[in-house]
Amino acid sequence: MEQESQPLVSVLTPVYNCEEFLAECIESVLAQTYQNWEYCIVNNCSTDRSLEIAESYAKKDKRIRVHNNKEFVGCDANGNIAMRQISTDSKYCKVVYADDWIFPECVMKMVELAEAHPTVAIVGAYWLSGTQVKGVGMPYTDAVIPGRDICRQTLLGNLYVFGTPTAILFRSDLVRATDSFYDESNPHCDSEVCLKILTRWDFGFVHQVLTYIRKREGSEVTFSKRYNTFAPNRIDRLVKFGPAVLRPGELEACLKRYLAVYYRYLAVSVFARREKAFWIFHRGKMKSIGYPLSVSRLFVAVCLKATDYLFNPKETIGRLLKSINKVSKTVSAILSLIVGMGVCL
Questions:
Q1: DSSP helix, strand, coil percent of the chain (3-state; round to 5)
Q2: What's the predicted TM-score (pTM) here?
Q3: Which of 8, 35, 111, 171 is the right S-S partner for 90, CB 3.0 to 4.6 Å?
Q4: In the structure, what pLDDT confidence band is assigned to residue 317 with cuts at 50, 70 and 90?
Q5: pLDDT at 324
Q6: Which residues contact 79 (CB under 8 A, 6 or more apart)?
Q7: Domains of the chain by residue range
Q8: pLDDT at 73 (0 to 100)
Q9: What is d(CA 135, CA 129) in angstroms, rounded to the nearest whole number?
């Protein structure tokens, strides 16, 4: 693609205290074979040298500018602020997180595919996470896939090709269509917005590794892992998008399977004596989804897990004795705990 015919791409980097990796991220944008881009680095009140680093690059290249938030906001709110910085002239939008980087051909390959297929709203590719290649599962012969097929396979648990925003490219018109591109109330809003778009548009996929996504441990990631926000989110996505892309029998069977897995997880959490805040989160989340936690279902799951602890022949004698002690203490507390959760029958 000749530079004269290259549509403008808005590249965005939200950053908070990422001085260790920010220069590497910026350099990867500067190294792109695609040249018609604007680059906005959105600093979220960093207390390290992130702002200084960003401003030093902005002084060297007029395509780079820095937006400095007046107040600190959450990660997803900062993502929305970043999305609002794209130019009215840009045709595509590419996020690169401050601790990630992109390979030199990334923007070129993604834009070429999108330009060749006007029905494609999101372009993805394989990404490198640590030393592992992720995003696998797409047939190598397919460069364009109906969005509803991607949604369907994602909801059924057969495919995941979104990664983080670093791994994909959006059409800018879809970003500009709303003031809040991401639903800040959902810790998994990046994948949700992809599903929402793909119920109406197609998905493009470049069969190359084009991005590097660093394994991160920010406050949002820590919260998601500690409370396992992924478990109810899988049900939430199924309820929101399943009716549009799944057959009724598929939807019912998938929901039944996901709920069974979820309650087995909650049963383990009972024995782990998870803190009150954990239960408050899950109670609130499931209520918002429309499937409030059930006392009777949780009790059955706990009893089944207690039986497993007691009679699993593969357990060692030491584990068995420990489980018996745990069961005797926990079962006596189950009813009081469940009542304290205030869940529905």
A1: 50, 15, 30
A2: 0.86
A3: 8
A4: very low
A5: 52
A6: 14, 95, 165, 181, 182, 190
A7: 7-214, 228-341
A8: 96
A9: 10
Asked if the model's pLDDT at residue 314 lies above 80, the reply is no
Nearest-angstrom CA–CA distance, 165 and 331: 44
CB of 84 closer than 8 Å to CB of 179:
yes
Structure tokens at 111: 């834009």
pLDDT single digits (tens) 77-91: 999 999 999 999 999
Percent of the chain past pLDDT 70, that is, above it, reads 88
Which two three-digit tokens encode residue 13?
A: 């980097």
Q: Which residues pair with 294 in a beta bridge?
A: 344
Comparing CA positions, the residue from 149, 196, 188, 185 lying closest to residue 165 is 188
Q: What's the longest Cα–Cα distance across the chain?
A: 74
Which residues share a beta bridge with 42? 14, 67
41: exposed, middle or buried (Cβ count in 10 Å: 0-12, 13-18, 19+) = buried
In this structure, are residues 261 and 232 in contact, taking their beta carbons and an 8 Å threshold?
no
CATH number listed for the domain at residues 7-214: 3.90.550.10
Helix and strand numbers, DSSP H then E, in the chain: 13, 10
- What separation in angstroms does the CA of 51 have from each of 13, 31, 41, 72, 101? 12, 21, 9, 14, 18
HEC readout, 71-89: CCCCHHHHHHHHHCCCCCC
Structure-block tokens of residue 233: 């989110």
Q: How many CA atoms lie within 13 A of 4 on its CB side?
A: 0
Q: Which of 220, 326, 212 shows the shortest CA–CA distance to 268?
A: 326
pLDDT at 150 over 50: yes
Residue 316: pLDDT over 50: no
State the amino acid at position 215 in one-letter form. Answer: K
Cβ count near 7 (within 10 Å):
16
Residue 119, pLDDT score: 98
The model's pLDDT over 202-252, given as tens digits with 9 standing for 90+, comes to 999 999 999 999 876 655 667 888 899 999 999 999 999 999 999 989 999
Tell me how far apart the alpha carbons of residues 203 and 135 are, in angstroms, rounded to a whole number. Answer: 13
SS3 54: helix
